Amino acid sequence: MVVATSTWVKKKNVPYKKREKKSSSKHLLQLISTSHSLLSVEERETDKEMEDVRVKDEALRLIGLFEVLPRLVVFDLDYTLWPFYNELHSKRGMPYLYPQAKGILQAFQDKGIEMAIASRSPTADIANTFLDQLGIQSMFVAKEIFTSRTFKADHFKAIHRRTGIPFNSMLFFDDEYGNIDTVSKMGVTSILVDDGLNLQELHSGLQKFSSPNEQI
Predict the structure, then answer these.
(1) Catalytic-residue membership of 76
(2) Tens digit of pLDDT for each residue in 44-77?
(3) Per the domain annotation, does 33 fall within a domain?
(4) DSSP conformation class of 172
(5) Which of these is catalytic: 76, 110, 181, 195?
(6) Does 38 fall in a domain?
(7) What is the pairing mode between strands 114-119 and 189-192?
(8) Whole-number CA gyration radius for the chain
(9) Of the listed 78, 181, 194, 195, which one is catalytic?
(10) Helical packing angle, 2-63 and 101-110, nearest 10°
(11) What's this model's pTM, rounded to 2 decimal places?
């Protein structure tokens, strides 16, 4: 009876130990997978930082081509700096900029050219939260974010009051023709962007500001 009991225990223990080993292997694979995922995130962040530096250097080169430069550069937010309407998101969202936007902002900052925001977004709180999360909030000397039916005429009047910079010393980037048309008539050099802020739009804006009477 003792021998039979011993044999039974051994047979019962074998599959138990196999299950334990299989579970440990699965846990190890999960740890390896998690480590690879974390490494991929770090690699992507490093690649993005390197790309921002490359864009900034090229933007600085483009800025250096022109003797006449704006004193203030004003940006729209939705579909100009970032590719979405911020009012369709919550503060818990994960915002991101167009690929070349941050490098261009950094270049203007390095050159000592002031920047501002003019947005007709109805959710200024979300917009400001996103600017904070992206680490670019402090780059702007003025942020006029409110709804308006004047195609941003009120925004630019407020920016002028806040900065004292005349309209003809400003450069403006926006994705809506109505805003561009209205603000241009105020004397602001304005560029209609098609697919967000990028180096091509930057060059067009600087060239138009430097030679306002030439066709771009």
Answers:
(1) yes
(2) 778 889 999 999 999 999 999 999 999 999 999 9
(3) no
(4) E
(5) 76
(6) no
(7) unpaired
(8) 28
(9) 78
(10) 50
(11) 0.80
- Residue holding tokens 């209205």? 182
> Is 135:94 a contact under the CB 8 Å cutoff?
no
Q: CA-to-CA distance for 71 and 29, rounded, in angstroms?
A: 56
Pairing mode, strands 170-174 and 72-75:
parallel
User: What's the pLDDT at 8?
Assistant: 38
**Alpha helix ranges (H) inside the chain:** 2-63, 101-110, 124-133, 153-163, 177-184, 199-210
Q: Is residue 55 part of a domain?
A: yes
Total of domains in the chain: 1
Its domain, for residue 73, covers 51-210
- Residue 4 CB burial class (10 angstroms; 0-12, 13-18, ≥19): exposed
Among 94, 102, 91, which residue's Cα sits nearest to residue 129? 91
The pLDDT, as a whole number, for residue 32 is 58
Q: Rounded to whole angstroms, how far apart are CA atoms 11 and 25?
A: 22
Those residues of the chain that have pLDDT short of 50 are: 1-23
